[in-house]
Amino acid sequence: MTKKIIAKETPIVFKLGELFCGPGGIAQGAKHASVSKSGKKYQIQHVWANDYDADSCETYKNNICSQNSVLVVHKNVVELDINSLPEIDAFAYGFPCNDFSIVGEKKGINGKYGPLYSYGVKVIDHFKPKFFIAENVGGIRSANFGNAFNVILNALASAGNGYDLTVNLYKSEEYGVAQTRHRVIIVGIDKKFGFKFKVPAPTTKKNPLTASEALQNPKITADMKNHEFTKQSKTVVERLKRIKPGENAWNADLPEHLKLNVKSARLSHIYKRLDPNKPSYTITGSGGGGTHVYHWKENRALTNRERARIQSFPDTFVFSGSKESVRKQIGMAVPPKLTEIIFKSVLKTFAGIKYKSVASNLGEWEKCINE
After folding, report:
1. Catalytic residue ranges
2. What is the mean pLDDT of each run of 10 residues along the chain (371 residues)?
3. Which domains does the chain have, with CATH numbers?
């Protein structure tokens, strides 16, 4: 019997660097993104990553690069020596969104975190990568009356050798993530290539993954990592008993002694139960009582493993640190399933592989601040 010889593919490797890497939501997607064409395999290799949070760096090391020699720098980006970092030709960063979020004061580019986008611009200027991916919350479009977004886009477009930008507001629930998490993602490709990145078409727009599907298929077992339960007070349990799936502390029929005594902003996700037949609302990384996301049937907050499932992290992805630290890491991360689709589409663009795409929902980036 003749043995079939399988020809080896020639690897085309993009070396990736990351700022504000967090636990590795973007990296997890990049790690699993690869495409093949004409005997060539296009893939991404992590070279270095940076974050100021020690637990996030540990999580990143253990899950993204446990088998590889990747430089993970635990340091405030302000103190990071870009010149000392290994060469890269691809770059990604989800710059801190605190000052652009719809929750909070929305100081935009004038806030403490707003200017941190500029460190990504410095990386692009220094390494001149073939492509980059930048991520932030949808609220970035309106910060400083739209001026902040305009400044950021212009800085990214003119960095390095100059980049062709594709800007889109991605709805995670339309890309296989069981969560209504909407994020602006900017893809820039060096203009010298003449490539135009196209927004990948949604994969689950008509049939989004529901919260119950994400948490029950397959079942989460008691021995899984990061699956510790939070002890709920008697008052919280009594309150949850009276809140129906999809309801929160404000629209539920609660007796007077269980109502919240809050006179300021009434956030819709306070003690909000999941609707088992819909995607989860946005998982957050911080917040006090009532912000931990609540099971539709059981009178309790979700565990971190359940939050990770909703964020589309695999069960084998183990987070380091205390329970509250893990909660923060999960809530601040970018859904890996979404980033994998975007990275694959970038690789297809370079490989010359056609894929289903849609027009940007923000139009041409020069005009998107007026949308």
Report:
1. 97
2. 72 97 98 97 97 97 86 95 97 73 46 72 97 89 73 94 96 98 96 97 98 98 97 96 96 94 74 98 90 97 98 98 97 97 98 97 66 41
3. 10-207+334-370 (3.40.50.150)
